[in-house]
Fold these 2 entries.
Entry 1:
Amino acid sequence: MFGLGFAVQRFRPLGERALAQLSGLAVDILLPSYLFFTTATSPILESSSAAPVMIGLGIVVPLCNYGLATLALRPSRVAKGQRSAFRFSIVVANTAFLGIPICEALFGPVGAVYAVLYDFGTTLVTMSLGIWELNGGHLRDWRPLVVTPLIWSVLLGLAWAWTGWQFPTWLARPFSTLGGASLPLALLVGGAHVGNIQLSGFSGWRQLAGLTVTRMFVAPLVVGSALTVLGWRDLSMGVAVVESAMPVGLTAAILAKSCGADAEFAASAILWSTLAAMVSLPLVAILLA
């Protein structure tokens, strides 16, 4: 579905408004509905006890990636004006549009819940260290973290599950139908967003290669190796490794532009890291199998 969305946007492009509306439908309605239902009907102890672990991993892994990005600056010959976009692009991964559906496909519904919790931790880093990196020491408003429907849907689902109430059959059917549509649509919209990126005359191929290798291959290898050494071989480890292998987040170019960083470089990073993911993600899935 991701490849289909990319192809459609390249050859029969959707308008900016239509793409924004589809994104809103996926992120604000379909995915939250699916996650609420999944969390409310999943084993409560497993989901709730994993929350601090997954949020913690979502914070620690991007912080480690910031260190990897800093180490990659010199060998990648990143110019001073590109450094903030370079580091930010390695820190911010596509853990929502791409990560949640892939974790659901690999690990089942509980994997999707774990992925949302991980994404919440990553968002904390993005809105603090990430914006600080792009903005030269100024932090963005934290209100988007409080009102995001994805995390609230999981919290409400956990609250429902704690009550022990049986989910009514008449209500379960429409939620199940929404769940069947939400993940494919999220992949479709994510692919369309990448296909919407227009590049013109970009020449920083050495820098882009260094970023792609660091983001797509080095980061998941370091995370997987560290968790294996620590003896961490459960579902949370699998989700963390898969999420760490995601390409550059779709918001990287938008935030870079709004903060005055190199938005064209960030857009290139999104496109080429996503293309590289077609090779790297199957390898990660095979290694975790």
Note: The chain is about 80% helix and 0% strand.
Entry 2:
Amino acid sequence: MNSALFVVAAVSLLVTPGPTNTLLATSGASAGVRRSAHLLVAELGGYLLAIALLRALLGPMIAATPMLGEVLRMAATIYLIYLAIALWHHGNQQTYENAPVDFIRVFVTTLLNPKAIIFALTLLPSPIDFLGLLPWLFGLSALIVTVGTGWIIVGRVLGRGLSGIVSGNTGYRLSAVALALLAGVIGSQLLRLT
């Protein structure tokens, strides 16, 4: 894959709404852009660790044992449901001083994000040694941070634009519904395979 096609494919995948993007937008809406910026480190770390693990350990194991891939999908589905419930309950609270989105939550969510599988096993060139992979990882890292920043800004803009029209807890509830729907999509893929 040439670099231009890689950028287009990676950006298309990154801008697609998903669990990490939902959390970034939620934080942007509730905490603001500056107070959410540290979450970009969590997102980047989660993706890079997932890619490293998938390429080094799980890629060959999933190829040899397809059931392992299904177990990983099930774990991601359960975690997304947990996040949806947590955001829904946060929407019931009357105080909004602390955003329900923290560093660890973004890191773990990104680590379990199915997009990492596509990056690790499809978009990044293979087979290639670590030094050959570095320029691709640097480019992907720049794209992750840029698109993640965009999601935080979108959350902030929507949060400001809807204040007074929609209550604060509605944003948390909408984020919870989006995560639950994503969990349903991933879970339905598991049901089709049984």
Note: Residues 44 and 142 are 9 Å apart (CA to CA).
